[in-house]
Amino acid sequence: MTTTQAYVAHGSGLSFRGLLLSEWIKLSSLRSTMWCYGLIILINIGLGVLLAVSFQPQGASTASIDQGYWVQFSTIGIAFSQLVVSVLGALVITGEYGTGMIRSTLTAVPKRIPALISKAVVFSVVSFVISLVSIVVAALLAQGLLTGKGLTLDLSDGRAWGAIVGGAAFLALIGLVALFLGAIVRNSAAGISAALGLIFVAPIVLQIFAAVTRAAWVQNLFELLPSSAGARMYSYTATPAPKVPDVIVLDPAQGLLVLVAWVALFGILASVLLKRRDA
Amino acid sequence: MIEATGLTKRYGMKTAVDDVTFSVKPGLVTGFLGPNGAGKSTTMRLVVGLDRPSSGSVTVNGKSYSALRAPLREVGVLLDAKAVHTGRSAINHLRALAATHSIGRARVDEVIGLTGLDSVARKRVGGFSLGMGQRLGIAAALLGDPATLILDEPVNGLDPEGVIWVRTLARFLASEGRTIFLSSHLMSEMAQTADHIIVLGRGRIIADAPVGEILALATGTAMLVRTPDAERFGALLSAPDISITHREPQLMQVTGLSSAQIGELAAKNGVVLHELSPQAGSLEDAYLALTKDEVEYHAGGTPR
Prior knowledge:
The complex is a heterodimer of chains A (279) and B (304). Chain A is globular, with a radius of gyration of 22 Å. Chain A starts with 15 loop residues before the first helix and ends with a helix. Chain A has helices at 16-28, 31-54, 63-75, 78-99, 101-108, 113-148, 158-185, 188-213, 216-224, 226-231, 252-276. In chain A, 75% of the residues lie in helices and 0% in strands. Chain A is built from eleven helices and no strands. In chain A, helix 3 (63-75) packs parallel to helix 7. In chain B, helix 3 (90-100) packs across helix 4 and helix 8 (211-218) packs across helix 11 (283-291). Chain B has helices spanning 40-47, 71-74, 90-100, 105-114, 130-142, 160-175, 187-191, 211-218, 230-237, 259-268, 283-291; strands spanning 2-11, 14-24, 29-33, 55-60, 75-78, 148-152, 179-184, 196-201, 204-210, 223-226, 243-248, 251-255, 275-278. In chain B, the strands form three sheets. Chain B has a six-stranded mixed sheet with strand order 5-6-7-3-8-9, sandwiched between helices. Chain B is built from eleven helices and 13 strands. At the A-B interface, helix 1, helix 4 and helix 5 of A face helix 2 and helix 3 of B.
């Protein structure tokens, strides 16, 4: 019937480097990304500067209390920018499901998991860098403003910079929690709700319960939530909180570990479901 | 080369694809026909691994799709539903897909030119017309210069010029030895493009043959006979295995007799014939005849 030779495919194939580049193009070519990162920068720098500007030093102060004000003002924006990075994290994956883009993604990467991993890597690295730069800018501006108001600040304080880097890492990791939650529910509204529910609503509810019941286990549950455990990563206290029996208080490293465990839990769940479900 | 063996896909109680076995060969345009809901899109999704078969298997060039080292080089696919992020520009969509396989910018520009998207390449896909979206989907399918092309309803929403372009493109790519698998619910479209046709109805294959054979199914032995003496001649022709339909007062359709037999009978009985012609079968008729019982959604009627 035909004498034509079958055409043989040739040329470059899949590579992890290619997948990272692909996810970078995807992330950087959407307006929602620009809006969310713009908002994160604005919140991180704006709130820190706002507090430093309106701060009125009162009475006697020690160097360590001054240092505490500085770090607190530098990282104050995180309480709000974590919501923005969570929304973006959820959107990064649910946007693909909502528009059908996921079918293009998964036909290009039929093994699927590498696509999710590269998306997570690109999103978390970009989020970390943007967070770090904005928090450092906030810290430097706050340092200038506070020094002008007579505070004595120590820029060589390793623990202070640890809190600043910890804050940026926290934003990247909390965004990953939202991304994997989004991959599990596969719908923008549900993904954003689930992420904000876990990151923002659950701590409030548990805090109310803890206040009412005074039960240590409720307090501990609260401490282990992603946002509260992660908050330890950028907390800076001059004096450690008084010990209460049976109540867990995480240090920054433990906070990081708990948050990483949350990321791993949702990451594994998302990967298993991605592999098993029809797209 | 696409080979499906006992391919089955069930969604809950519903069997979308039911024990389907077929092969799509290189160098040919293979048409995949069937009414809406027959399972064409599901079959194509199974080929590229978007859905997992309930049983059976399907391979592309001897390998399962997910085992391919360079899937976009082996298979280019256009799915029926949109598969593009509406907030991204066409060029960025193509760049992102190309990057996965380290396909260069030159090829991205090439498929944009090939599909006539130059003027809208930097616009966001959300504002695209159906036809533009379809061209972008075809551009994405062509990115990897694939050996196998799977296009689900490719001419949907295209203007006449676009339809001819897709047809020409499919024929050209097949002539280069590629495997071309096109679905459509329009038989007339396939008659002009395909070499081979697979007809699907209610998830099962009801025909799998070269286009000529499918046409022959419709070009049965029906003859059109026009005569002022229709009533009398009809009675004369009447026999147990001969069916006669009076279409107009002077026109009847006769099945079961050749033109020679009818002509001789007319001469013997002194009947004047104004017309004696074979009823030309169209692919459309063959298709309707084949799928008559297989249509899932009857217009204006109740499903069986």
